[in-house]
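Lab meeting, action items carried over

1. Structure of the two-component assembly. Owner: GW. Status: complete.
Input record:
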Amino acid sequence: MLAESLFFSAVLFAIGVVGVLTRRNAIIIFMCVELMLNAVNLTFVAFARDYGYGGQVFVVFVMTVAAAEAAVGLAIIISIFRHRQTVNLSDINLLKG
Amino acid sequence: MTLFYQFCFYLFGLVAVASACIFVTRKNPVAAALWLVNVLFCLAALFVLLDAQFIGAIQVLVYAGAIMVVFLFVIMLLNLGQATQIADTRGTLPYLGAGALAIVVLAAMLVRLPHPAPMEVFRIPADSLAVEARATGAVEPVAVPLFTEYLLAFEVTSVLLLAAVVGAVVLGRRRQEGEDPATDAGGAVRAPLGDIAEAARAR
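Predicted assembly:
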């Protein structure tokens, strides 16, 4: 099942990349990043089956970092929304040259 | 490697991929978030099929149960999802289908079938981690390296979580009226941003 896991993981990661590149809603882009993290977790778990439990431990760390990232990122989005009244990334162009 | 196992694996994998495709194409953020929850549930099932039962459990608890709820809170707090689009279920057919499915699920839980002998499809393959996990439990093989080999990373993670919580509170809180921005930690970060934003708007 290793090959199939890697295939599904790759497809999910690619879908996440497409979402990040094509969407303009900051929250949806955030969720696409979560999808990419999950695709990588699937790879870790698939390899952990053959190479020991280290991969599963790493998945725990990835989930923790994802939770921290979600908390801070959503706080930033709320903060931006208070200033600009939008989460559309094409409207948030303060640092654009 | 039984046929039943392979069937479940492909089923959950394909449902995950299909849900992900629907997720990235939804316009409504609430619908997108719920499709992503579907993907996460399918991935939890795949984790269990790959002999990572504990990871599957915390996938449901942490991801689907906590992180996605925070996402939905923010979407609804910022009023991004239109309630009319979510409540729209077009006609009576979806209601009938959902009702029939609910009856089938309820019957599956209530009706007690005669207990069959352990079917071949549920037998655990001899090469899997599950055979080992049967002796030790599903949590211990993950927990032991977490608290011995990776102890430093574990402690650093706790500091990271503390920093994230403090950062989220500082960024997310609303500045009180009449509060001096210079002495306020959040204001110190936000006041210059606000000035730049006003300057950009004036330009």
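2. GW to write a short summary for the group page. Key points so far: DSSP finds three helices and no strands in chain A. Chain A touches chain B through 56 residues (CB under 8 Å).
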